[in-house]
Amino acid sequence: MEKNRRQFPKEFKLRNKCTQMQLAVLFIFGLSLIGCASDVANRYYAAKQYPSKNKADVLILNSKPTKAFIVIADFQSRGETPSDLQEKAAKIGADAVIISRIGGLYSRSEEWASKDRYQGQFHDHILGTAIKFTEEN
Amino acid sequence: MRTRSIAILALILLLTACASVNVTKTGKGFFEPTSPAEVQILKTLPDFKYVELGTLTVTGFDSGETAKMHNAIRAKSSDLGATAVILTEEGLTPGGWGTYMRWATGVAIRKLEGQ
Predict the structure, then answer these.
(1) Number of domains into which chain A is organized
(2) CA A105, A111, A113, A116: dihedral to nearest 10 degrees?
């Protein structure tokens, strides 16, 4: 009985250590899933460099704007967010960044070409097209 | 424990019920998405002028799901603004239990306006 009492704190500590290790592994795994960008590949096209702007001044668009524009850069990666691309666009002085999500999982039970239940949810790459408007207003 | 087993089973079912389309943009700029149903699947070079938009690699379809695979290619390439996809390579890989899985690679293109 006495022996068992002495062993209990050791077992408790061991179990505690295991839980901590499990948490650490889960944390690292979580970071690898959300925190890290991969396959980051950007291209800059403009002949000149523009002064950087505040991130909040860069528009995030999901479709082509009606105003005339020029494309100054393309961003492409896995694991980044529209906000990350907005920040990149701000650094190169873009007025807006057009976001697209491409590729990813496709349900084999789809029957119609126009249906894709996972569109935008389980995408493979995120794209950002950094643009400068060519006309005022 | 039971919840975890159900979650793992659901994840496995989701992954086995899905194919994967890897799309990489190679073109410049932005094009509005097109209608997936209108995207042509080609095995030869078209006779119209076009720009290349990106590359595609499709995996995870059964050997008999050729048409379904084409629809997946249509759906995923339309986000890039593709009007057609030229399939450059196709093949089968062993999927276990005597089955084969279909894969393909291709190039998403957009027909130049006025052509």
Answers:
(1) 2
(2) -30
Do both A27 and A80 map to the same domain?
no
- Give the whole-angstrom CA distance, residue A45 versus residue A48: 9
- CA-CA distance, A66 to B3, in Å (whole number)? 49
Measured between beta carbons, which residues in chain A are less than 8 angstroms from residue B84?
none
To the nearest whole angstrom, how far is the Cα of A5 from the nearest Cα of chain B? Answer: 29
Q: Is A125:B24 a contact under the CB 8 Å cutoff?
A: yes
Any idea which residue has 């100054």 for tokens?
A72
Region B78-97: mean pLDDT is 94
Residues of A in contact with B30 (CB under 8 A): 64, 71, 98, 100, 129, 131
Predicted confidence (pLDDT) at residue B40 exceeds the cutoff of 60: yes
**Whether ipTM exceeds 0.90:** no
- In chain B the domains, ranked by start, together with CATH numbers, are 19-111 (3.30.110.70)
- pLDDT reported for residue A6: 56
- Flag whether residue B68 sits within 8 Å of chain A, measured between CB atoms: yes
Choose the mutation target among B14, B15, B22, B30 for the interface with A, i.e. most A CBs under 10 Å: B30
pLDDT per residue as tens digits for the range A64-80: 999 999 999 999 999 99
Contacts of B104 in chain A (CB under 8 A): none
Chain B residues within an 8 Å CB radius of A105 = 18-20
Q: Are B24 and B67 in contact (CB under 8 A)?
A: no
Asked if residue A67 and residue A91 are part of one domain, the reply reads: yes
